[in-house]
Amino acid sequence: MLLDTASLYFRAYFGVPDSVRAPDGTPVNAVRGLLDFITRLVQDHHPDDLVACWDADWRPQWRVDLIPSYKAHRVAVETPEGPDEEETPDTLAPQVPIIAAVLDALGIARVGVEGYEADDVIGTLTGAASGPVDIITGDRDLYQLVDDARQVRVLYPLKGVGSLQVTDEAWLREKYGVAGSGYVDLALLRGDPSDGLPGVPGIGEKTAAKLLDAYGDLAGIMAAVDDPSSRLTPSQRKRLDVSRAYVAVAPTVVRVAADVALPDFDPALPAEPLDPETLDALAARWGLQNALHRLLVTLGK
Question: What is the pTM of this model?
Answer without folding.
Answer: 0.93
